[in-house]
Amino acid sequence: MNERVLxxxxxxxxxGPVSVSGWVETVRDQKKVQFVIxxxxxxxxxxxxxxxxxxxxxxxxxxxxALALTETISGLATGTFLTVRGELKHDERVKxxxxxxxxxxxxxxxxxxxxxxxAADSGMDKRMDWRFLDLRQARNALIFRxxxxxxxxxxxxxxxRDYIELxxxxxxxxxxxxxxxxxxxxxxxxxxAYLAQSPQHFKQMAQSAGFGKIFEIGDVFRADPSFxxxxxxxxxxxxxxxxxxxxxxxxxxxxxxxxxDAIAAVKEKHGAEIEELFGLEVTVPTLPFPRIPLAxxxxxxxxxxxxxxxxxxxxxxxxxRQISAYVEETYGSQFVFITDYxxxxxxxxxxxxxxxxxxxxxxxxxxGVEITTGAQRxxxxxxxxQQAAEKGLDLAGIEHYLDFFRYGTPPHxxxxxxxxxxxxxLLGESSIREVTFLFRGPTRLxx
Length: 447
Description:
CATH 2.40.50.140
């Protein structure tokens, strides 16, 4: 028996016996010849079989076998998983990779139902209902190869710089962000638990523990009834926190290096395939990214003819698009840091600048969409208590968090970044649903 070969390896393999396994993408059953496009996790190949439609009077075992093979191929349904053995032949006339396999034997591992529940023009909700079928497309499979490369490149950046990777708990005794976005659960005796909205508290605890530089890539949960293209109730967050910083600028400088290296890795490994399947060229950003204070960004947007309606002074989605368009036109950058946010629109743990009273924080926009909030954290417990009280927080409810700062904590800061948003924007998709393996939102809990 020939050892299984991945389809992407066929172009460099010599002519001769070969075995491949995958699923049926299409069947063209012609009068004298049959063609099957077989796909596996690495690519697609054309199978060919000279059709035998009937037995002659002098039929022998070989002819009976050929007829059986023809009938089997005629009955193949899209999605059937099988193993084929045959003769590999290089032929530049074959459009699909310049190779084809003449079928000798075909073994069905699992037959598919003949009627598929989704089609190429099915709507998003229908495709999400049958996500495992939707993911069989080469375009969709590429998304998760890109995701793998992106995450690996980020981990490489951090590990080469001596960061520690953490896996923080997702069950919490108190909220890490807004009370309004909590998933609560009754399990622990006389105590309500919450699903973590971010690893924020634990990232900061690691600074108090003296870890210095840490990162985490893990799930977070937001009970936010948003139905936009960029929100989810469960998503993967990319977080980092570093000690001994002078300001949020140290965090921003680290993050822009991280993104440059990660996007460069994606371009190197998948650039040609992304251009073929998504119709866009991956652009590796140049450093530094532009920095624009929020007040200045609002003025720029107003001069472009758009008045931001939000009463709190923050940018709304259209404001983010407008300032990003300005930055691309002016600086040729797809990224921009918006800095110097008012404390009213920032969490209590963001450090405030002594001179301006504004927070030492930023949002990072990529192609007109916010992907990150970063900041220097307040590490002085008395200031934290004061700022929490100003926000109307019950200090007893965050007592465990405040304990982190009562025994010494270095100046520190970090960021949280949505993985799906980065992927969506990098690949030019319109929704994070398209780039999430299994999306979870207010109305989506299955499959």
